[in-house]
Amino acid sequence: MILDVARHKFHESLITLIIIAIIAVVRGAMLTAGVPAAETPFATAPLQPAIDSFAASHTIIAALLSLVLIMHSSLRLARATVRDSLYASRTMAAISLTAIILAGFAICSHSLQTLIVASLLAEMLARTFHYMTHSSRLHYLFTAMLALGALPLVDSSLLAMLIVLPILLIFIRAQLRDILVGITGAALPIFTYCYIMWCCGESFTGTATALWDNMFIQSSFELGDYLSLSRLVLGGVVLFVQLCALLLHRKEAMSLTLATRNIWNMLYLVLLVLIAAFVLLPSTSAASIVAVLMISATALPLFFLRMDTVVAVITYIVLVIFSIVAI
Which of 114, 161, 200, 243 is surrounded by the fewest CB atoms within 10 Å? Predict the structure, then answer.
């Protein structure tokens, strides 16, 4: 039963998550230890040099933080899919599947930075789902947008995530109050950073302009080195599962509530916009790829819920194998 991920009980999913997370952080610590802080001159996001320096100087603490971030991202996203009924049937599959994706794609020489991005995205998605389905209280929207606005401070390419803000607001509420709350939440982290830089003697507008310019600067990320054969195979399987999940969703969409259908429409539209943006941007990084896959992870459990058990088990085994190989 443990190989049928759609029917995992919580303890089975948690065991899988812990095992994958431990393997991932040990490998991540080995990669980070091999890259001194002085060899990261191409980092352009405000917090990226500090994160890389901390990971290189405090390998064990960074590894423990990475373990916490993987577990938080997986559990937070999975809890949101169950609590807000994204699928017609409840499943804990998102716990294991998110861990597999993070292990396969987030473990690199900048693992801590990439996992912080994944954790912020998990928070943003979970709070947005809850706001759209169960409550109209504005603090869910505000805190979701805070997480969204913090992303560009960790990775320069993720300033492109802010272009999805209008899409999010359209699918959440079309009221002026909600639009103002959403824009305020998304702008607050960047405004705070610019204000701190201004207090330190920098130009306020110059700091904001630099954030925008950094999105169009070539990053040190080497796609050819990052996309090993195992990651290519893993990405191909994830893409296949994603496309199948999309077709399966179209079949059962009418059995879901209107709010849940809006969530699905929002996710797919945001996914398309982000893929297009990251293909065009020169600052695309491993964090950009993980951002796309974190959004995709919310749809993957649908495939394992609806597919024949044999097909689902084989697909899950392939994902686990290539995720571990990719580490």
Answer: 200
- What's the whole-number mean pLDDT along residues 204-222? 84
SS3 letters for the chain?
CCCCHHHCCHHHHHHHHHHHHHHHHHHHHHHHHCCCHHHCCCCCCCCHHHHHHHHHHCHHHHHHHHHHHHHHHHHHHHHHHHHCCCCCCCCCHHHHHHHHHHHHHCCCCCHHHHHHHHHHHHHHHHHHHHHHHCCCCHHHHHHHHHHHHHHHHHCHHHHHHHHHHHHHHHHHCCCHHHHHHHHHHHHHHHHHHHHHHHHCCCCHHHHHHHHHHHCCCCCCCCHHHHCCHHHHHHHHHHHHHHHHHHHHHHHHHHHCCHHHHHHHHHHHHHHHHHHHHHHHCCCCCHHHHHHHHHHHHCCHHHHHHHCCHHHHHHHHHHHHHHHHHHC
Share of the chain above pLDDT 70, in %: 94
* pLDDT tens-digit readout, 83-137: 888 888 888 999 999 999 999 999 888 889 999 999 999 999 999 998 888 766 7
